[in-house]
Design brief:
Blueprint: H1 2-34, H2 47-67, H3 79-103, H4 115-145, E1 151-156, H5 160-171, E2 177-183, E3 192-193, E4 196-200, H6 205-211, E5 216-219, H7 229-239, E6 242-245, E7 258-262, E8 265-269, H8 278-313, E9 319-325, E10 331-337, H9 345-348, H10 362-369, H11 377-383, E11 387-389, H12 396-405, E12 418-420, H13 422-425, H14 434-446, H15 450-463
Parallel strand pairs: 1-2, 1-5, 2-4, 5-6, 11-12
Antiparallel strand pairs: 3-4, 7-8, 9-10
């Protein structure tokens, strides 16, 4: 039943997308050709020619939508994800259309076709397709909340995984998941969690499937019961009911894992680290080199003035070098402007700076408060020890301490440390929670993108360099 409804929804979605694309094309033609906003040079081709191009164009775009998974069930897909898929599809469509246009222009066939119209079509198709998806999603969510288009599910295994799944379904009624019950061998029949009861043992699964209309089975076994998995899968496959497996590895994997296929052997990576992709790493490194050179030129005069003031304020070197732990746990010397009087190495390692610390010079107080003392790290970035954006590096002795005290602390060393990062723009600077800082660092590592780096850079500039927790 639910499969038939899903097929009908997919057919409806394709028809709606085709109608929206046709409307967007006609709208683009109206503004670019029929009643042009910019009248000069809008082309001389007939309406019949323009609309004949639309005939192959729309199926091509629908094919791109299918390739980029826009026709997957929308129950649990976020609108943000759907928008980015629409943007990707239409961007690829624009590039292909423009390529074909310019390839055939020399033949004279598309010589007068309006490139401006392609631009209008690109903007309108993204806007109207996104609006269509948004309103369709709202309608389906409302229907599911009211009991229509429900997906009836049995859970196999009464465990923390099943509890988590039930919580999510209760929190998101618009997903339309109706949990019929849980089968489990260890829990007593009648035991329940948030109104979802254990309705029998695992041996009863076959009878339950044959006597009830169930659309899906979710295997939510605890890790200790995985030896039962082959028999459960066999029972599910005999019933013909779609089955999904929700693994009990939350204590090991806390975010989106990445699956690989090694010649038929499925492999799940424990953690998704986008910067392990060579192309991502190369792109970020190029940006770091360019950004560090710009920073050195831009802040060069200020660094010269600060260097002179440090030399006048107290005897000793201008640059303070301190060993920090970087990419792949490798130590490196991080540069800062010296903000304290010269100390012995063993004294410097004892503790962090505290409020009113007598070791800090008068110019040191200013440059620490305004983060100017960090400017020499542009040279660390240029060398490759650091990145412009990333988790802040810590001293070796504190890394040894934190890795024993804070779970997953060492994961931050899977990427280059940064001059600023997601933790810093979220308020974790100076003497603040190490645990909160690590949570931000891990989120950044697992969700890295070029747009996120740009966002952090602008937030750093927007919030300023003054650090109230720097002493």
């Amino acid at each position: 039943m639910i499969k038939d409804i899903q097929k009908q929804l997919n057919h409806l979605q394709v028809l709606l997308d085709a109608a929206v694309l046709a409307f967007s094309y006609a709208f683009a033609w109206y503004f670019a050709i029929k009643n042009p906003i910019f009248p000069e040079g809008h082309g001389v081709l007939s309406p019949r020619f323009y609309f004949s191009v639309m005939i192959p164009l729309i199926p091509a775009y629908l094919f791109l939508y299918w390739i980029l998974r826009l026709y997957k069930p929308m129950r649990t897909i976020r609108m943000k994800t759907a928008f980015f898929r629409i943007l990707q599809s239409n961007s690829v469509g624009l590039l292909l259309s423009a390529s074909i246009l310019f390839a055939f222009r020399k033949s004279g066939y598309f010589e007068h076709y309006s490139t401006r119209m392609l631009g209008f079509f690109y903007v309108f198709s993204i806007f109207f397709t996104t609006a269509e998806r948004y309103f369709l999603r709202k309608v389906l969510s409302a229907l599911r909340k009211n009991g229509f288009n429900q997906k009836h599910i049995i859970l196999v295994g009464f465990s923390p995984v099943s509890d988590r799944f039930i919580d999510l379904c209760k929190k998101n009624p618009d997903w339309g998941y109706h949990i019929y019950g849980v089968v489990d061998d260890l829990a007593e029949p009648g035991a329940s969690y948030r109104g979802i009861s254990v309705i029998g043992g695992i041996k009863m699964l076959g009878d339950l499937l044959s006597t009830n209309t169930i659309d899906e089975i979710a295997i939510t076994l605890p890790l200790a019961a995985y030896e039962k998995l082959p028999g459960i899968v066999s029972t599910c496959e005999k019933s013909g009911v779609h089955t999904k497996f929700i693994p009990d590895y939350q204590q090991f994997i806390h975010s989106k894992p990445i699956a690989e296929d090694m010649d038929g052997l499925p492999i799940i990576n424990i953690r998704n680290v986008p910067l392990t992709d060579p192309m991502n790493a190369i792109l970020k490194r190029w940006i770091d080199i360019f950004g560090s050179l710009v920073g050195i030129v831009l802040f060069g005069p200020l660094m010269l003035v600060v260097a002179a003031l440090i030399k006048l304020s107290s005897p000793g070197p201008i640059i303070f070098k301190q060993e920090r732990v970087g990419l792949h746990n490798r130590p490196f010397m991080m540069y800062k402007f010296r903000s304290m009087g010269v100390q012995k190495a063993e004294e410097e390692k004892k503790a962090w700076t505290v409020k009113g610390d007598p070791r800090v010079t008068w110019i040191g107080k200013i440059i620490r408060k305004t983060s100017i003392d960090e400017l020499p790290q542009f040279f660390n970035v240029l060398k490759g020890d650091m990145s412009l954006i990333g988790p802040r590096p810590e001293r070796t002795q504190f890394v040894e301490m934190f890795k024993e005290q804070i779970p997953r602390y060492m994961i931050k060393h899977q990427v280059r440390p940064g001059m600023t990062g997601w933790a810093q723009v979220n308020g974790f600077r100076g003497d603040t929670s190490i645990t909160g800082r690590i949570q931000c660092d891990l989120w950044y590592i697992e969700n890295w993108s070029l747009s996120l780096d740009i966002k952090i850079l602008f937030l750093t500039l927007w919030k300023g360099f003054v650090n109230k927790n720097a002493y």
